[in-house]
Write a structure and sequence with these properties.
The chain is α+β, with helices and mostly antiparallel strands. It has six helices and nine strands. It has helices spanning 2-22, 27-34, 37-40, 70-88, 122-132, 135-142, and strands at residues 46-47, 94-103, 110-116, 147-150, 153-156, 172-178, 181-192, 204-218, 221-226. Strand 6 and strand 7 (181-192) form a beta hairpin. Helix 5 (122-132) runs antiparallel to helix 6. It is globular and about 55 Å long.
Length: 231
């Protein structure tokens, strides 16, 4: 009897082991599905529309409303990108017919600043930046030594830096929604320069770089609390 029970137990154990080993392995598939695209070095699903950074733009909707739709979020990103561009890449247009000599706060040198073409006065410029960026980022932008308040008007020390030529187009993105916050996740393709022949049209994508742009509902309005410089 004991021998029979032992054989029966052994048979049941073997059956259970076979059943376990024959189950489909779903764990790895599930992990892949849950991975962020940045872990897989691939673009996001949507292509970021291009922008003409030489033009100042404003949104046409109310940024104080509690919820934003998809197009409004991207429109806010577009405007914020133009603002970031004029501080980090190339200053906006100036009128060389209206120049003043002013001290550059960054180096103490007296430099020629020219009157802004796009902003009627410094207050308009200040409010434009503060409308789209939270206090910390607004202070960071407005402290740029290339922009000064001279006699309540905006004067600019014109300048530009080159963008990163290895950062290709287009950027791609997806939007993640949380309570009182949207995160615009942006993937930027970077060139493979191993076989670069001087023609950027022939380069291929080597990898993607990923940045998060955070849009939060602060003091009754949507503003960016993080805005990395991509190029």
């Amino acid at each position: 009897m004991k021998k029979y029970l032992l054989m029966l137990l052994l048979a049941l154990t073997t059956t259970m082991l076979c059943a376990c080993t024959n189950e489909p392995v779903t764990g790895e598939d599930q992990i892949i599905e849950e991975k962020d695209e940045s872990e897989l070095n691939i673009p996001y699903p949507n292509e970021m529309p291009g922008a003409d950074y030489s033009k100042i733009k404003d949104v046409t909707f109310d940024t104080t409303k509690a919820e934003l739709d998809y197009d409004e979020i991207i429109d806010l990103y577009d405007v914020a990108s133009r603002i970031s561009f004029m501080f980090n890449v190339c200053t906006p247009q100036v009128d060389y017919g209206d120049q003043v000599e002013a001290t550059n706060p960054s180096n103490g040198f007296v430099m020629p600043y020219a009157r802004s073409v796009d902003f009627e006065n410094y207050e308009v410029f200040q409010k434009y930046v503060q409308k789209y960026f939270a206090e910390e980022l607004s202070i960071e932008f407005l402290s740029s030594p290339q922009f000064i308040n001279y006699d309540k008007l905006l004067y600019i020390l014109e300048g530009a830096r080159g963008t990163n030529i290895f950062a290709l187009e287009p950027d791609t993105y997806k939007i993640v929604k949380e309570e009182n916050k949207y995160t615009i996740k942006v993937a930027t393709p970077f060139a493979n320069m191993d076989n670069y022949d001087g023609n950027m049209d022939n380069v291929t994508v080597d990898h993607y770089e990923y940045n998060n742009f955070t849009l939060e509902y602060i003091d009754g309005a949507w503003k960016f609390t993080s805005f990395p410089v991509i190029r």
